[in-house]
Write a structure and sequence with these properties.
Blueprint: H1 3-23, H2 28-36, H3 41-48, H4 57-78, H5 107-121, E1 125-126, E2 132-134, H6 135-138, E3 163-165, H7 171-179, E4 184-193, E5 205-215, H8 220-235, E6 241-248, E7 251-260, H9 266-271, E8 277-286, H10 288-293, E9 301-308, H11 309-317, H12 330-333
Parallel strand pairs: 1-4
Antiparallel strand pairs: 2-3, 4-5, 5-9, 6-7, 7-8, 8-9
Helix pairs in contact: 1-4, 2-4, 5-11
Bound molecules: phenylalanine (PHE).
């Protein structure tokens, strides 16, 4: 049989097989392989081309090409050509599909966003600071001169003689006051670094939200009222809060605020050092020395606060080890 005849009969045979395969989709990929795979009928036809009389070769070659195009078009129409190498009959379309987990917002970011929303609702605007700071912004301008014992409160990572990783977001107060005139009502969230022993309650980096309110008439009871408002908004009306007198060189008077965590389990003891209370922020009235260092009028009044984000996240979500917040363990993160 001449090759041309053969081509014709293959074409007929294909048409018949195709129409029966359309009724039974499990046969389609077999059919594709039979005709169009590397060892299939069409490629066999091409290999026989070498035996054809040279003068007939162009015609016969064209026919085989047309045949192949025709077959491919038929499979394309069925939308199955791409499945050629997979055995379609082994696919179980009733199986559930792969589930792709969506990312979620990290608890730290979530706490920052939620707290920012609360302060925005009472007129604070959000600014940001720098993680790399000069000694001036992190200490000096905040009334912590060199050799001041308060420097030991925050064990610092120095990058070189001038630059350091900020130990608190209070540094951003100074930047903001240098660049803006009072009245000021801002919060400034961000990351801070301290060379501390790593434990269930402290880590070498953490996050704070700094707050600063400067105006002509600002009192300590304004500060207390705003801190209580924030705690109730965030933790609910029944939250238990207490203020303790404290010391910061840049505020006078100063206080720390604790939130009641509970004291039932062993981890409650560890996290609250046996008190049941967790300290979440430091605050106070801006010390006049700080106004002096940014060349503000000494008659101004203001309050400042620094909220510890990780502590809040632990309280809010019942996280009993701060390190979980940094490990990127997907089993932990998926719960948020
Ligand atoms: N910067 C202090 C700290 O890191 C917190 C603080 C901020 C205290 C503002 C008073 C006023 O502990």
């Amino acid at each position: 049989m001449s090759l041309l005849k053969k081509i014709e009969s293959i074409q007929k045979e294909f048409k018949a097989e195709l129409s029966s395969a359309t009724k039974d989709s499990s046969k389609i990929s077999d059919l594709y392989n039979k005709y169009l795979s590397r060892k299939g009928i069409v490629s066999d036809l091409f290999s026989q081309l070498s035996n054809v009389d040279p003068k007939d070769k162009p015609i016969v070659g064209q026919k085989i090409n047309a045949l192949r195009n025709d077959f491919e078009a038929s499979f394309d129409k069925l939308g199955t050509a791409k499945l050629s190498n997979k055995n379609i009959s082994n696919l179980d379309f009733s199986l559930p599909g792969n589930h792709f987990f969506e990312g979620s917002i990290h608890p730290i970011t979530r706490v920052i966003n939620d707290i920012s929303d609360i302060f925005k609702s009472i007129g604070f605007s959000v600014t940001s600071g720098n993680e790399i700071e000069d000694d001036f912004y992190n200490f000096e301008a905040l009334n912590i001169p060199k050799h001041h014992p308060a420097r030991d409160m925050q064990d610092t990572y120095y990058l070189n003689n001038e630059k350091l990783l900020r130990t608190h977001t209070s540094a951003s107060q100074i930047h903001f006051m240098e660049e803006n005139e009072p009245p000021i009502k801002i919060i400034s969230p961000g990351r801070v670094y301290r060379n501390e022993d790593i434990s269930v309650r402290s880590y070498c980096l953490f996050h704070q939200i700094e707050g600063l309110y400067v105006d002509k008439k600002v009192s300590f009871s304004d500060l207390k009222g705003v801190m209580e408002f924030f705690s109730k908004k965030y933790f609910g009306e029944n939250v238990k809060v207490r203020f303790r007198p404290s010391y910061f060189p840049f505020t006078e008077p100063s206080a720390e605020m604790d939130i009641y965590w509970g004291l039932e389990s062993e981890s409650d003891y560890r996290i609250t050092k046996g008190t049941g209370w967790l300290e979440i922020l430091g605050c106070g009235m801006v010390d006049p020395e700080v106004f002096k260092s940014v060349k503000y009028d000494s008659s101004l009044k203001g309050y400042a606060f620094g909220i510890g984000i990780e502590r809040i996240a632990m309280l809010k979500y019942g996280i009993t080890d701060i390190r979980l917040l940094y490990e990127g363990d997907i089993r932990f993160l998926r719960q948020f």
